[in-house]
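Q: Got one fold?
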Amino acid sequence: MLYSELSRPAAETILPRALGLPRDPLAALKGRFLASHEAVDLVKVGTGDSRECFYLGGGGVGLDAAAAAYAGGPYRNFPGRMRYVAAALRAYFSYQPRRVARYI
């Protein structure tokens, strides 16, 4: 399974903007097939239910991930930066810490 920032609502513009893709999905797709190759990070992760997944782009854990989920969910239609401020405040005041393990 491959998770991509291109399909994550909370981070819908980070990777495409970093790659210089246009906002129009068809123009972006056409542009990528005609453009030169660029290196990006690809991370392989194991999930709590023993699945292995790949993740393309940046990522967050904990409070950062909670804020991103709110920005891409309930606050998705808020205008401009208000979306991220509201999401960050809600994440901060409702956040419950989780245990995360890292294996190398």
About this structure: The chain is about 35% helix and 10% strand.
